[in-house]
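Aim 2 progress update. The chain analyzed this quarter is reproduced below.
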Amino acid sequence: MADSTSEPHNNSDKQLPTQAKLPAGWLSEWPWITFLLPFIVFMVATSFEPTPPPPLETKEIIAEPDIGFFAEDPGEGFLPAISYSYYPHVYTAKIALTLLAMLLVWPGYRTFPFRVSSLSVLVGVVGVVLWIVLCHLRLEPKVIGPIDEFLGSFIPGLEEGDTPSVGLMSLIGAGERSSFNPLVQMAATPLWAYAFLAIRFLGLALVVPVIEEFFLRGFMMRFVVHDQWWQVPFGAVNRMAVIAGTAVPMLMHPGELLAAFVWFSMVTWLMVRTKNIWDCVVAHGVTNLLLGIYVVWSGEWQLM
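Predicted structure tokens:
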């Protein structure tokens, strides 16, 4: 274990153990494509997803399925906001484009031998329990709130009655989920509602685990270990890699900071222990699948 968490060695002259090479051709010439392309496509498409409207407007959206593609409120971005009722269309297009990108880099995925340990399933099951519990506890405001006010108290020019803040609390709200319930929002078209639910689970339990783990652990965590990151054996980490493996996904899940910290730390432990990227993918997939089942059963769509 001491070797796995040694100091960073970003030295291109240092010899690295042999790592399976990417297929000859463009995937070998640009090794980052295998690990980044599907993730980039997914994230760019996600930026177009409509956000949930205020609670009072939800019934209006259900009652008016023919609402225009663009929302009446343009939002704060440069592009017009898409109506929430079109969330299934945007999400379906996102998954289709991501699957296409995954197909393009599939030979790169195959350079990692597919094998799965029972430990990955166990980590996935324990992980979903911890994720749900920590999300319900909502400890982030209790921890971040006092820190936000303390740092804000040093801002000059505060007037009496002003709440000191440096904006840390706004990070929590930035992680708002789509919360789209197809069984309610698409009740008028039950066949399409269940078809979209299947697409949602496809993205949640199969697509996301692959693209996130290949980006985070296949690229990011190896990138901070060595200049020639594609030669770093999977599972060889240093302190900076461990930090990146937790900090980066926390930024990707600002609404669930504590849950993200605990869950991604567990999978980093799994990565170092088994040195198998597919174990990380399976753990991620098991957690997401069980989370999706829990959401459908409980109706807590804010978790999705």
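The radius of gyration is 21 Å. Residues 5-23+113-303 form one domain. These observations will guide the mutagenesis experiments scheduled for the next reporting period.
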